[in-house]
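Worked example 3. Consider a protein that binds flavin-adenine dinucleotide.
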Amino acid sequence: MRPVSSLPTRADVLVVGSGGAGLAAAWAASREGARTVLITKGSPASCNTGKAQGGIQAAIGGDDSPEQHAADVYRSSHDTADMELVSVLTGEAPEAIAWLEQLGVEFSREGDGYRLARCGGASTRRLLQVGDRTGHAIAHALRGALAAEGVEIHGHAALTAFAKPNGHFTATVDCEGQTATIAAGTVVLAAGGRCYAEASRRGVLTTNQPGATGEVAALARELGAAARDEDSLQHHPNGGAWPPPLQGYSIPETTRSYGALLVNGKGERFIDELAPRDTVAEAIVKECDEGRGLTTPDGRPAVLLDTTQIEAEVADQVLPYMMRRYRHAGIDPLTEPILTYPVLHYQNGGLVIDRDGRTTVEGLFAAGEITGGVHGRNRMMGNSLLDCTVFGRRAGRAAAADAR
Ligand SMILES: Cc1cc2nc3c(=O)[nH]c(=O)nc-3n(C[C@H](O)[C@H](O)[C@H](O)COP(=O)(O)OP(=O)(O)OC[C@H]3O[C@@H](n4cnc5c(N)ncnc54)[C@H](O)[C@@H]3O)c2cc1C
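Given these inputs, the predicted complex is written out as C-alpha cells:
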C-alpha cells in the first residue's frame, strides 16, 4: 500500500481525476508555474478517456470550418448547448490537435492528409482517429507530458469531502482506507461522469469504467456549484449485445462511418446510420419495442449492425482493436453482422462552467464529462475528447492564475 504520508499536504492547484480533462488541466497549471497536485481514485490509467475508441473532432478539412463544426454541435444538441462554450470548443479544436501531436499522438493518415471520418450529426468528415484506440493514445501522451513536467499522479487517492473554510480549499482524501488532507488555493474537478453508478442502479449495461460514479459532482453541488441538464444521460447507439464478453462494449461508431448498416429482424434498414446519436439509439429501441428486432441467445433485445459492408482493408486500418475483440470471441464482423443495442454511455449535463472552466463557486474549476453546457442535452461523438483537451487546458491555466 502507498503510504499516505507521500501525499502532499499543500497545493496551489489541486486537480481531481486522471482522465483527459484532469491530465490536460494539471499540465497547463504546472506550465503556469503553479505547484500542482493530481489525485485520482483508481490507478493513474483508470478512466473513461483511455477507453475512447472512435476519435476526436476538429474542423481541419478543406471543406470545413469551426463555425460549421459549431453549427453541427448546436443542431445535434437540439439547440440546447451553450454557444459561448461551443465556439471555444470548435474554435480551439485545430490548435488542440496540433498540441496533441506535439505530445506524440499520431493520428491516422490517408495519402497526404489525415484520415477523416464523418460521424453522426456531422455535415462533413471531421473525425480524426488513432486506429480505434484514440482515447488510449491521447491519455498515454498526456501522462507522458505530465511526467516530463514533473507532476506525479497520486493514484488510489479518492476525494471524499471538501470545504472552503477561509477562502482556500481543504480536500479530504481517502488513500486505501487512510485519510489525508490537502490544502489548495484552487481546485479543478475532472472526475468524469456517473454512468457506471447509474447503470448499476438500473441494472443495465454501460460502456463506462467502474470509477464513473459521480460523487465529486455531488460534493461540488453541496458547496454551492450550479449544475445543468443533470437528468440527461446519453446512450451509445451501438453497445455490444452478443456474445457475452462483448456485452456493453462500445462498438466504435466509426463502423457506421465506414459503411456498416443497421438492419432490423426483417432484414430492413430503418434509420440514417449517420443521424445524431440519440436519434439512432431511439430508432433501435423503437424497432425492438414494436416487434421488428431480434433477441440475443440470453433474451436481450437487439438489431443487426451489418459490419460485412466494411472493406477489409479499411477495417484493418481503422478498426483493428474491435476486429480482434470480436474474432477472439468467435465472430468475424467482416463475414457476419453483429448484434447491437443501445447502452448507457455518457453524462450530457453537469457543473455549469464559463469559458475558462470556472464553476459558480469562486476558485472551483471543472472540465470534461463532469461539466454541462458544452454538448447541451445530446453530445456528438468525438467531441468529448476534444472537450477534455480544450477545457482541461483552459481550466488548468485559469486555476493557476487564480491561485496566485
Ligand atoms: C467506451 C467509451 C468510448 C468512448 N469513445 C469516445 C470517442 O471515441 N470520442 C470521444 O470524444 N469520446 C468518447 N467517449 C467519451 C469520453 O471518453 C469521455 O467522456 C471523456 O474521456 C471523459 O474524460 P474525463 O477526463 O472528463 O473523465 P474520465 O476520463 O472518466 O476521468 C475521470 C477521472 O476521475 C477519477 N475520479 C472519479 N471520482 C473520483 C474521486 N472521488 N476522487 C478522485 N478521482 C476520481 C476517475 O478515477 C478518473 O481517473 C467514450 C467513452 C467510453 C466509456
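Take a moment to read the result before moving on. The chain has a mean pLDDT of 96. The chain is about 30% helix and 20% strand.
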